[in-house]
Design brief:
about 0% strand; 6 helices; mainly alpha
Length: about 130
């Protein structure tokens, strides 16, 4: 019974997953670029500025389901780079080096790149 319910809800749950991941990731970009959510605006021509652009634009594209697979791959690479540049030098255990969020985003982006936008994404407009 549980499997049947989950299978019927799969498209809805994936949509919620994609939108949540996209909006949450976009907030990190808004912190870096706009100084929102307790952040400090960084210069666009800096490593943090480029990261902010990828996060804000990438998060919004993922939320809309637009260029989903490509965007998810770009953001996954960014999170891997962030982990190894900012977190791994402080130790290998993600919980200790505060890199668990970067790795969770990395894993989420791998799922999004494998599955694409699915049913309620703007990528579907290109198929028609």
């Amino acid at each position: 019974m549980m499997n049947e319910l989950l299978e019927k809800s799969e498209e809805y749950l994936y949509f919620v997953f994609r939108v949540f991941v996209g909006l949450l990731f976009a907030q990190h970009g808004a912190q870096k670029l706009l100084g929102w959510f307790g952040g400090k605006a960084m210069p666009l021509i800096s490593m943090m500025g480029v990261a902010g652009i990828i996060e804000l634009v990438g998060g919004l594209l993922l939320t809309l389901g637009l260029l989903t697979r490509f965007t998810a791959l770009v953001t996954a690479v960014e999170m891997l780079a962030a982990y190894f540049m900012a977190h791994a030098p402080n130790g290998l255990a993600p919980i200790m080096n505060k890199g668990e969020l970067a790795l969770l985003y990395f894993a989420s982006f791998l799922v999004l790149s494998a599955h694409g936008a699915k049913k309620w994404g703007l990528d579907n407009l290109w198929k028609k």
